[in-house]
Specification:
Layout (H helix, E strand, L loop, with lengths): L8 H13 L2 H8 L3 H15 L4 E4 L2 E4 L1 H21 L7 E7 L1 H18 L3 E7 L2 H9 L5 E4 L8 E10 L1 E5 L19 E5 L4 H12 L5 E6 L2 H9 L5 E3 L5 H4 L3 E5 L5 E9 L6 H13 L6 E3 L1
Parallel strand pairs: 3-4, 3-5, 8-9
Antiparallel strand pairs: 1-2, 5-12, 6-12, 6-13, 7-10, 7-11
Helix pairs in contact: 1-2, 1-3, 1-4, 2-3
Length: about 300
């Protein structure tokens, strides 16, 4: 009869520490053990489970899919242990979050405020940066959670669908096109127009659509964010084609938003690591956002 495979809490602790820390040195410091003790625990866990949990790559230990899956299955166990043995005074856990300006400056600030009021034992560190930097920050373990409207696929980063939107035209309340129910590409011809800079892929996509119907808006300004575009539109400088999420929630009383007849669609994502477990505070914030994100006529759940 084969010997029974008993569960080993120290082995599971070593696995989680190594996944979260990235090196045996950091994992050993985290648990107050020696590097050799961490290595022995991982070797024993691999032998007992019959799984390869880490592969050495360029001098670093890279977790396998088996390790990530096993760690996720351990989440309920360690959450239960935290409830049993945890301190009576809650530890202030930190959420490190990064997002581009279109999400950060108004949308996230509002939801972070309501989140912390509901969960005063949490702490949030927010960085505003580009979508490229969102992905790099998750890869480098500088952040736990990112928000992005750009579908950038990288090994080591997982994108969780959040919202999906169709393009809209944003314009001042008294704009000549404000009474139209739907704006078509040909309607933009000769209209003063606020465009995105060419570093935005949407600029090229929109130009192809306009070229097909020989529509030539009169570009009066270029901007790098959707909030800048709609704010210039609000001032009457021209109209803009934008992603309505999340700007619609903050400008719907000051601007007219009309569907733009095109194939332009936008998707928003939560960016997380697929190599490290998502911290409890990050899971709680994702749930908070999904629950409290208001609906709008142009956006649906991703």
């Amino acid at each position: 009869m084969a010997p029974k495979s008993w569960h080993s809490l120290p082995e599971y602790q070593a696995l989680r520490a190594l996944l979260q820390s990235g090196t045996t040195t950091a994992a050993a410091d985290r648990l107050g053990l020696s590097q050799s003790a961490i290595s022995r625990s991982i070797t024993s866990l691999e032998a007992r489970s019959g799984r390869i949990l880490f592969e050495r790559e360029a001098g670093r230990l890279r977790p396998t899919e088996e390790a990530v899956r096993l760690n996720r299955r351990l989440d309920p166990l360690f959450e239960a242990l935290d409830r049993i043995d945890g301190p009576t005074v809650p530890v202030q856990e930190t959420l490190r979050i990064i997002a581009p300006p279109s999400f950060a400056h108004r949308f996230l600030v509002s939801h972070i405020t309501s989140f912390l009021r509901t969960n005063p034992h949490f702490f949030v560190s927010l960085e505003v940066n580009t979508s490229d930097e969102v992905i790099r920050g998750i890869l480098d373990d500088r952040f736990d959670l990112g928000l992005t409207g750009v579908e950038l696929h990288r090994d080591g980063v997982k994108l969780l669908p959040y919202r999906a939107s169709s393009a809209v035209c944003a314009m001042s309340l008294d704009h000549p096109l404000a009474n139209k129910k739907v704006i078509h590409p040909e309607d933009l011809s000769e209209q003063p127009f606020v465009a995105f800079t060419y570093r935005h892929a949407r600029r090229t996509q929109l130009e192809k659509i306009l070229k097909q119907v020989r529509s030539t808006p009169r570009i009066v300004a270029e901007v790098s964010t959707s909030f800048a575009a709609v704010d210039l539109a609000k001032e009457g400088l021209g109209l803009a084609v934008v992603n309505p999420f999340p700007v619609f929630h903050y400008r719907s009383q000051e601007l007219k938003f009309r569907p733009f007849s095109s194939q332009i669609e936008y998707r928003s994502y939560f960016a997380i690591s697929d190599q490290r477990p998502l911290p409890r505070v990050a899971r709680a914030f994702v749930r908070h956002l999904r629950l409290h994100t208001p609906s709008d006529p142009f956006t649906k759940k991703g």
